Amino acid sequence: MGIKSNLTLLSNAAVSGTPQIISVGGSYIYMVSGTFGGTSTQLQVLGPDGTTFINMGAAITVAGFQKVDLPAGASVKTIITGGTPSAMHATLGLVQSSG
């Protein structure tokens, strides 16, 4: 089964991204690449209090990916901490919808 749709979280970035809304709930592949330079990246989802962003999965410190399950309407973002990153890219690719 291939990736059905992509949501761009970072595009040629060196700083954290802004929140994006997931329109379709389901299983996603979170992919990150770029020049990490000691950087750590983390996918976060807005928590039930509507204020706090919560880490999803493990931090990524080299180009890679991880599977995450997200509900429809979730607000997600990628944060970048430490190091000297450049040309960072991050996407969420929907693999299987929950409906």
Spell out the blueprint of helices and strands:
Layout: E1 5-13, E2 20-21, E3 26-35, E4 40-46, E5 53-60, E6 64-70, E7 75-81, E8 86-97
Antiparallel strand pairs: 1-8, 2-7, 3-6, 3-8, 4-5, 4-7
Order of helices and strands: EEEEEEEE
Return the structural class. mainly beta
Number of helices: 0
Which regions are unreliable across 5 or more consecutive residues at pLDDT < 50? none
User: How would you write the strand order of the largest sheet?
Assistant: 1-8-3-6
What spatial form do the alpha-carbon principal axes imply?
Answer: globular
Rg (C-alpha, Å): 13 Å
Can you describe what's shown?
With 99 residues, the chain is an all-beta fold. The chain has a domain at 29-85. 0% of the residues lie in helices and 63% in strands. The protein is built from no helices and 8 strands. Strands 1-8-3-6 form a 4-stranded antiparallel sheet, with no helix packed on it. Strands 2-7-4-5 form a 4-stranded antiparallel sheet, with no helix packed on it. The two termini are 16 Å apart. 23% of the residues are buried. The mean pLDDT is 92.
Question: Brief overview, please?
Answer:
0% of the residues lie in helices and 63% in strands.
What attributes characterize this protein structure?
99 residues, mainly beta, four-stranded antiparallel sheet, globular
